[in-house]
Amino acid sequence: MAEPSSNHYYVPPPNAYPVVLNVGLFLLALGFILKITALASGVLPMLAGAALFLYAAFAWIANVVTENETGRYHRWEDRSFRIGMAFFIFGEIAFFSAFLLAMMYLRVYSLPTLGSYDPQFTPWPDFKGVWPSSGPAGKPFTALSPAGLPTINALLLLASAVALVWARKGLAIANRGQMIAGLAIAGVIGVVFLFQQAQEYGHAAELGVTLAGAYGTNFYALTGLHAVHVVVGLVMFTVLLVRGFLGHFTAESHFGLDAVSWYWTFAVVIPGWLVYIYFYWL
User: Fold this and answer.
1) CA-CA distance, 128 to 135, in Å (whole number)?
2) What's the pTM?
């Protein structure tokens, strides 16, 4: 079979990786739901889902990398990849915005409205519609402070962004060691971030912050969603590091590095800071 021409768009053959990936995500979600609802342990579905997800993700990535390194991608593919990544990031921004706007609606409209009802016409006569609140029927809790781990984590996100810029600069000046070091630093920062986020969850539980109240629901939803994006970013960093050691990426061909940098900036760093500012400070 003749090699594809650079004047034609390369169309890869069908594969089962998208199906396996989605089955893994379904099992992960199912296990999580079973766990939090106490209907079952949920551990086995989550483990099976994680295994399927990781297998499909890495196998699919390896397939794409092979296609790229064997010369099947050219300017048409590079352009479409960048457009596709831009749409993906736009979707991620909309995703985070929906959660933040829901929290804004709760704080600006729902709580004040509930708190303004005449005590004689409401089952919650002592309810005060001010933030932070667990809702009319929520349990007492102590609000989380931005001091300590939240602020450290916010600064770590900025440091990881700087490390990525440094890594990209290394590729631009043909310094592969700098590129690999920058990616490794960003990855280590991401791991430390997740570790400290887990500690923050433990601290939140001690303060009585649970999913049973409006405050806890927003806290775990926003920070949990963000943590998932950090985990995905760490998978991306792992792939980039392996490719960097294998000699992939040049000043002319580096979409993978650019894509991960965009993802980390717009789906991890900026949303992380928005959550930090809006949840902890405002």
Assistant:
1) 9
2) 0.85
